[in-house]
């Protein structure tokens, strides 16, 4: 068994809410974000100017005390067509480049599904992602529902062209209509 396969079985996952992230851990989260997302270019030229919503919880994955994978969670009422409902938003999914393709993000996503069911209690999870990472989410039960959504930033309605995926958590069907995040994206 390779060391990566052995180590991934020891992933320690924790969920932290507001005020539970120390300044030192916050530095680690920021460093992992920079490392994981450096050099990525999005097809939407205005992507870098987007303001991102604050999160309510962080899911953090550690191997031997080192932060190697993370994601953010929030609860938001959105609009899909004329219908309003709450979703658990997942964003900022990041894995250290040295630990990619080991299944760590998948473990974190599965643990987050259990957290959403127990703590957030929404009928759907919702995330946006680049097309090339879509298969990771599909393997964890996520479904593509749109190629764009709208959001409001600085009082202006904007459209973001990106893969939009949902995780069904109840028997409720997902409506086929325009998705409005009713605020900033996550």
Protein architecture, described:
By secondary structure, the protein is α+β, with helices and mostly antiparallel strands. It has one domain: Aminopeptidase (3-Layer(aba) Sandwich). 24% of the residues lie in helices and 39% in strands. It is built from 4 helices and 8 strands; from the N terminus they run αβαβββαβαβββ. Strands 1, 2, 3, 4, 5, 6, 7 and 8 form an 8-stranded mixed beta sheet that branches. β4, α3 (104-120) and β5 form a beta-alpha-beta unit.
Summarize the structure.
With 186 residues, the chain is α+β, with helices and mostly antiparallel strands. It contains four helices and eight strands.
User: Cα-atom Rg, whole angstroms?
Assistant: 16 Å
Order of helices and strands: HEHEEEHEHEEE
Q: Kindly state the mean pLDDT as a whole number? A: 90
Biggest β-sheet description: 8 strands, mixed
Q: What percentage of residues falls in helices of 4 or more residues?
A: 10-25%
Distance between the termini: 37 Å
Envelope shape: globular
CATH class: Alpha Beta
**Number of discrete domains:** 1
CATH architecture: 3-Layer(aba) Sandwich
Q: Can you identify the CATH superfamily?
A: Gcn5-related N-acetyltransferase (GNAT)
Ranges with pLDDT <50 over ≥5 residues? 1-7
Give the beta-strand count.
8
Class computed from helices, strands and strand pairing:
alpha+beta
CATH topology: Aminopeptidase
How many helices? 4
Range of strand content: 35-45%
Write the layout of secondary structure elements.
Elements: H1 3-8, E1 12-16, H2 23-37, E2 57-63, E3 66-80, E4 83-95, H3 104-120, E5 124-129, H4 134-139, E6 143-153, E7 156-168, E8 179-180
